[in-house]
Design a protein that fits this description.
By secondary structure, this protein is α/β, with parallel strands linked by helices. It has 1 helix and 9 strands; from the N terminus they run H-E-E-E-E-E-E-E-E-E. The radius of gyration is 19 Å and the shape is globular. The chain starts with a helix and ends with a strand.
Length: 100
């Protein structure tokens, strides 16, 4: 193995740390619905009524599963701008979901 020197080892360590951070932030969404309030990035199964605006959401505001029912109750789901946030509500591949 080639000796990378101190700067090469530092760069390699930085790459490893960034990979770990990227993996940690792409972990599965937390479940919400019923008695568990929804937050940015959560996955809704069942029924939920938003109790407040969801703001500063990352890539996805909320993910819905098949049969999920979301009542926004007048609240907004807002992202961080078009360069970061892509979807307010993710419904890809689900059936019978409802958003009000």
């Amino acid at each position: 193995m080639k000796n990378l020197g101190i700067f090469g080892r530092a760069a390699a360590s930085t790459v490893v740390a960034l990979c770990i951070l990227a993996f940690a932030t792409s972990a599965a969404a937390a479940p919400c619905g019923g008695d568990t309030p929804c937050a940015c990035g959560d996955k809704l199964s069942g029924v939920a009524i938003l109790e407040s605006d969801l703001t500063n959401c990352g890539r996805v505001g909320l993910r819905l599963t098949s049969g999920a029912k979301l009542d926004c109750d007048g609240h907004a789901i807002q992202g961080q701008g078009k360069d970061v946030s892509k979807y307010g509500i993710w419904l890809d591949g689900v059936r019978d979901a409802e958003v009000r």
